[in-house]
Amino acid sequence: MQANKACPVVLRQGAGLEILAFRHPLAGLQLVKGSIEAGEAAAAAAVRELAEEAGVQGIAVRPLGIWHSGFPGQVWAFHECRVIQALAESWSHRCGDDGGHEFSFFWHPLAEAPSEQWHPLFQRALAYLGERLLRR
């Protein structure tokens, strides 16, 4: 099955490698992710989702793999994205999805196990990314 979800991965070096994440007001801690539209390249979808969900302009610089999530109908394409502007330690962004939600962004240490506040799907996504990124 071809990827139908795009996940932009924004990284920074803090005490260790950190990944951009957010708190959804109804669904807990998550990574930016969204559907790949018909005829859209996965890298373009990752850049679009980053702008829509985080208010951040980015450039997809390299693919990080295709992940079969185990969740029905969700195959994710991960792309590392470099951002154009400097990012704060934390910020909020109002996203238009699902009638509009305020997302609170933060940096999650990639080597740190995700808490139970993360949906199991995103816990597995973080494990996948940790395996790919922390061993390089």
UniProtKB/TrEMBL annotation:
It comes from the Bacteria. The keyword Hydrolase applies. Residues 1-130 form the Nudix hydrolase domain. Gene3D superfamilies: Nucleoside Triphosphate Pyrophosphohydrolase. Keywords: Hydrolase. Transmembrane segments: none annotated. Its cofactor is Mg(2+). It holds the Pfam family NUDIX. InterPro entries: NUDIX_hydrolase-like_dom_sf, NUDIX_hydrolase_CS, NUDIX_hydrolase_dom. This is NUDIX domain-containing protein. It comes from Pseudomonas piscis.
